[in-house]
Amino acid sequence: KDLASEVPMGLKLEDVVLYAFILHLYSTNWSYLLMGVITIQTMGFGYIWLKLGECVQTKNRPRRPRVIRRLRRRLSVYNSLPSSYFNPLINETWKISELDRIRISLNAVTIFPVRFLLVLLSVAVAWLFGFLATLGLPNNSHFNSLEDLCKYMGERGEELPEDPEARRKAAYQYIIDRVNRKKVDPESVAKMDEKALCKLGSKILRHICWYHPFPLWRRLILQGVRLGVRMLLFSVGYLWIETVGELSDPKEAPILVSNHVTMIDPAFMTFAALPSPIGAVEHLKIPTLGTMVKAVQAITVDRNSSVSRKEVKDEMVRRTKQHGWPHLLIYPEATCTNGEAVITFKTGAFNPGVPVQLIHVKYSGRINPGWVGAGPSLWHIVFRLMCEPVNYLRVDFGPIYIPNAEERSDSLLYSRRVREQMSKWFNLRLTSHSYDDVRLQGMADKLSAPAENAVIEADAVRNFFGMKLNDIKKYYAKFDDADSDKDGLLSKDDFLRGLGIVDQSPQWGRIFDLLDDDGDGFINFRVYLIGMAFANTNLDNETVLRTVHKIFDSDDDGYLSVEEFTAILHKACPTGVYTPAVVAEIFEKADTDKDGKLTVEEFIKYASENPKLAAEFQLWRRNFSVESNDTKEANTPAKEEKKI
Fold this sequence. Notes:
Elements: H1 13-51, H2 76-80, H3 98-108, H4 111-133, H5 146-154, H6 164-176, H7 186-190, H8 194-204, H9 216-221, H10 223-235, E1 242-244, E2 255-258, H11 264-273, E3 276-280, H12 287-295, E4 299-301, H13 306-321, E5 328-330, E6 341-342, E7 356-364, H14 378-386, E8 392-401, H15 405-409, H16 411-425, E9 429-430, H17 435-446, H18 458-465, H19 469-482, H20 492-498, H21 506-515, H22 525-536, H23 541-552, H24 562-572, H25 580-590, H26 600-609, H27 611-623, H28 628-634, H29 637-643
Parallel strand pairs: 1-8, 2-5, 2-7, 3-4, 3-5, 6-9
Antiparallel strand pairs: 7-8
Helix pairs in contact: 1-3, 4-10, 4-12, 5-6, 10-11, 17-19, 19-20, 19-22, 23-26, 23-27, 24-25
């Protein structure tokens, strides 16, 4: 009633009350909604804060006691075995400070939800255009007819007769030879009609997506995929991307060779060039990713099939020689690194013998997204990227490397020279790490051991000692058993206990001292493996004799006294043959300058002139092995003499 006099003309009082009531409800619900959002954000902040606690890097870490020695003298094998002392398979940017912890927790409840919705939208856009680009193509077959299959066979060097019926039989036999006989009965293949045979052939040769290049109208639709991928990169913080140089034409360089750091690399290359990558056949089964793999006409390989690997090589050669195909994108390192070095290359990208363009991607900012074994998980990387306001990426399109005649005929030589050129052009380190190091990291992870200590530069160690990966894995299992505190390092006690050595003579400790190159009292797996390989591989007598001289030179003066020389002979042949009188006689003959001590040259000269003594040293070296518990029981004196 008090408001009745103030109600405008034509508006009833009850209408005013109704509008006021609605406005009250509206404001009240929004206040509740705002309170709910703030409550959820507070809870999310607390949860992220707690989860990031394990990533906070502590400043005061306990340091291991350092053993100080008067003279460090390395095993000669150290000087021959290449080592970079740099680990490209480790990523420590996940370690954060307390200030970073607060910043990431705040961004996780403010920036992250918005970006998450943008990621979903961008993936949907990319998938939609990829689906439209492949619309109308057969779902399970890329050979539309038997003639397509025969053409595929002819381009791979298969001799096909002119008679249609004979060509048909040859096509059937080609598929029968390649089926998995455990899953498909060859007799049932012979009874199939042409449509079913094309479907089966496409499934077996499914690395071809698709057999023919896309026509122009399909390639125009694929431009929408580029839009979706760029939206995706924007959603994870790559607002702008710096590029240096120009992308080559597929006719000039059919293959793009790049380093591989994380899942952002192929996303950017899809935006930049829409190339056809080489990937695993399992990618085709992933709902959204499978559509994208088909849309970019990727070549997929079944790693468990030798036939598939051969067919992939043939398909690469065919595409590089036939115009109309996009670039082939290959990561010759075959794994992800932190982007700061060039590791060993696989030769697959260089089998066709065609020019390649070198590309290098470099990430900067607060986080390195390197998806490596000794680093954060993929989901951790994605989360961190989406919690950063801005991330930075630089892509260098390098020169085109044109192989000469020698390199075209030798893919291994071609890969090595491209690797060296990439290192020089982009100013990167060259290391001997390889995919085998990644496998060792996976083994360490299963054993709950530090993955960073399992990296040994496997390519260098394997080539130098002629060791196989399975042998290295066996040594790592022994190393892990001996590692009492599971920190990835062995103390002297761990080392001797792992070898089953109960004889605590100084010589066994000297072996550890020679392996412990930095003198801190601990050795990692790489040093341990070098020692085991030294003890168990074929080495020339001079190398063995030099090492024996170092091991038994207990005072590090560069000479062997009579006592030290006596210890050598008793260790080499503990049968009582070398009595004090015999030792004195041998020492006198070996000491050519008659100064009462043996230099390494005098020791090598005398032992080389006495093959039996050199053989005893070789046998003693081999008894120092990773299986010394069994070896000691088996190598009785009688058996030792028989072996010699």
